[in-house]
Amino acid sequence: MTVSKPKSNFSLILLFAATLFFSASLMFLLQPLFGKILLPLLGGSPAVWNTCMVFYQSILFLGYLYAHYVSTKLQPRLQIHLHAAIILISFLALPLALPENNAPPTLENPTFWLLSTLFLAIGLPFFVVSTTAPLMQKWFSTLGHQSSNDPYFLYAASNAGSLLALLSYPFIVEPSIGLEHQKIYWSIGYVVLSLLIAGCAFRVWNNRSEPTLKVAEPRSMTAAPDIYQKLHWLALAFVPSSLLLGLTNFISTDIASVPLLWIIPLTLYLLSFIIVFSTWNDKTHLVMVRLQAYFLLPFLIYAFINPADLPYWGYLVLHLLAFFFAVMVCHGELASSRPSTEHLTTYYLIMSFAGMLGGMFNTFVAPFIFDGIYEYPIMIIAALLLRPTSTISIPSALKQLIGPVLLMVIGLVLYVKIDNLLDYFDTIAITLIVLSCLGFALRTRPIAYSGLTGAIIFLSLGMHGLSTHTLYQERSFFGVMAVREGVLTNEQSQPEIYHELFHGTTKHGAQRLTSEENKTPLTYYSRPGPMGQLFKEFDDQDQNWTIGVVGLGAGALSCYAKDQQQWTLYEIDPLVVTIARNPLYFSYLSQCNEQATMKIGDARLSLANEPDGKFDLIVMDAFSSDSVPTHLLTEEALALYFKKLKPEGMVAFHITNRHLLLKKVLSIHAEHMKVAALLQEFKPQREMPLVVATDWVVMAKNPKTLEPLALSRIGSWQKMPLYFDMPPWTDDFTNIISIWK
């Protein structure tokens, strides 16, 4: 073999970089695109996105495994033949579409249904896209270019494409292109990617057909990484992957269920890869290691030990910065220890395998062993454990853990032995703050540092769990449900116990427990409020009404039921039904409407199976934490509701929301569909226990149906305001950005 000078052809770099950039862009356009198709079928739960992420990570691992195998076992021309065949077969999956007649299960966890649906619909194209990054880099390393001996810079191009696609989807693609056209354009883009891959294959084919092989410089094979190095890579990739999904679930459940909020953690995650696989990593890594330790102090104090009265975005910034420093430290260590090109595919294979394991832990393990989002703080602690350090012995590691273990034991003893522990809350909080400050001195000793931080975090969580008086907490596919006990001062100035139902941080109902008040609907459904007004105005007409309620909550609406009425309650989460039917927590159903028909599953799919013209009233009260699933607000959804109503029937929408102007969507529908609509943005005139401000819209085909409400003196029902700056939402087009408050 002769050796020549390395090539410096810029067009070669441009071709391979463009291929990786385009491939990553397609990957991260496909993820939100298909997530948008699937989310409506499962109520918009954040667990749907996390399950989709597990699928993407699993296929990514298979793609990397394929790239590793073919690049190490097959000659370049055989690699090209095989890859071309797989690409041609994958064209059978185009254009993108859901399998026909494929409805999700209603009584069991839909995770495996979701995974199988994703595999059938997009498995092959996503597999091809996932093979591109490692395979193209491996091919580039054989071309004798001056950069061939370190092609990792191409990984930055790949992540730049991912980042651009991820940010462009909610702000450019979704607002301007309908879902059906998105599928078509993605399919066209996939064909373009295939042509780019063909161009790369052509260069490799021609290079291998030359009589001499040109390489950058003669070099011997470096030693293969040992098992400890591989396990270190595994841990450094596993923790950020799990932390990403844990934070996404945490902020959607415990901070704010703001649509598209999951984009921010994923953006930071991708940005970290761009930085660490660039030439900046040598300078930024040490800075990030220092900043992580400095920022941990305010993070522990304000996010865990003694949360300040911050707006939701304040907490969001705290957690996002802590997350960014953690993944920068882990990914910085990962990039610093990258091997030579002989072991490039092994390196990427371990990274993808760790990413898949992280997703699987969060999706298949954590929900079954934790009743809250505890995998998130666990991975914060694990990230601290992976901070750079010199090798230490096992005895030394055990010594470092003595302090944190003793602290946890003392905390458990206090928890068990002291009945009035909350009386010492301030003292314990101050002690934990002091320990956090002292822990800063341990920042160069990762085991002791992470152990002490873990003890502080979980002692803080235990204290706050006591202070919220949680009676019951359980986690399902659809989120964390909790029943909490509170005390109010009643009309006689006496303390009175009541129960509240929470989905994440959003209250979904409450009930007073005294015999005089335990049948009184409260919160958003109070008698002075819009729903109480509606039932009072139609009190003489509704004796034989057939009523459908979408969204169960604590079951408060059931206490408006009359003996001859027929009620059907639609709820997607079986756990909510279990809680609402348990008289230890709520007795609305058992006392007021035990004979109501209960149907579990997506309400829109369930309503489609009901006879036309069945209902006099449909109440739409479906929320996933604080978000209304968008597929229940599209024009096709409203057409379905009116189809199921009698000619004089009504549909009432609960649109109370901290973040979205939902009345805008319904106003545009009412104008476009030529139906009557009234709005009430209710605020209690005087302070009443557990009666809250709430917004409702009532719609009917016949304007005369709504006249009793429009003329009512007990409420303030108004005509809907008009909006002209947005097209109607449809199953093909929704735009969350346009209705942010």
Explain how this protein is built.
The protein has 741 residues and is of the alpha/beta class. The N terminus is likely disordered. Among the domains are: 219 residues, Growth Hormone, Chain: A (Up-down Bundle); 74 residues; 216 residues, Vaccinia Virus protein VP39 (Rossmann fold, 3-Layer(aba) Sandwich). It is 54% helix and 11% strand. A hairpin with a 5-residue loop joins strand 2 and strand 3. It contains 22 helices and 12 strands.
If you average the pLDDT, what whole number results? 82
Our estimate of the beta-strand percent is 5-15%
Kindly state the percentage of residues in helix: 40-55%
Q: Shape from CA axes?
A: globular
Number of strand elements: 12
Note poorly predicted spans: 1-6, 209-221
Features:
single chain, 741 residues, alpha/beta, Rossmann fold, eight-stranded mixed beta sheet, four-stranded antiparallel beta sheet, disordered N terminus
How do you describe this structure in short?
This protein is an alpha/beta fold and 741 residues long.
Topology record:
Layout lengths: L9 H29 L7 H28 L2 H15 L20 H31 L11 H24 L2 H31 L17 H29 L7 H14 L4 H25 L6 H25 L7 H26 L5 H11 L8 H24 L7 H15 L6 H22 L2 E7 L2 E11 L5 E9 L2 E7 L17 H8 L8 E5 L15 E6 L2 H7 L7 H5 L4 E4 L2 H6 L6 E6 L14 H10 E10 L7 H12 L2 E7 L11 E7 L6 H4 L7 E2 L22
Parallel strand pairs: 5-6, 5-8, 6-7, 8-9
Antiparallel strand pairs: 1-2, 2-3, 3-4, 9-11, 10-11, 10-12
Helix pairs in contact: 1-4, 1-5, 1-6, 2-4, 2-7, 2-11, 3-4, 3-6, 4-6, 4-11, 5-8, 7-10, 7-11, 7-12, 8-10, 9-10, 9-14, 12-15, 13-15, 14-15
